[in-house]
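Fold this sequence, please.
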Amino acid sequence: QVQLIESGGGLVQAGGSLRLSCAASGRIFNTYTMAWFRQAPGKEREFVATISRSGLTTYYQDSVKGRFTISRDNAKNTVDLQMNSLQPEDTAVYYCCADRYALGSTKKGDYEYWGQGTQVTVSS
């Protein structure tokens, strides 16, 4: 069982930055692929970024490439999402998720554990 708690959301103006953090319980954090998804009002939950167990491999949704950076600290059981050059279309609830077998998947159904989400609002 893995429990995930996100933090760092908030309100920011377009062009600004936010850093989301996800803290995970458990002593085997480094055996889980981690990812961030987001869900805007009235839309499906969509993939944002994923990071491998070692942290050496990352993958991003095209719309966030070059603006967002996912990272993890296996010693601290955390995964972060640095978001720069934020735009109003980035407004959503952002979710951290984990799975031992997802292996870089971009499909929400492949992730077993989910946090409660943190709201990110970007004003124009």
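Residues 99 and 111 are 5 Å apart (CA to CA). The radius of gyration is 13 Å.
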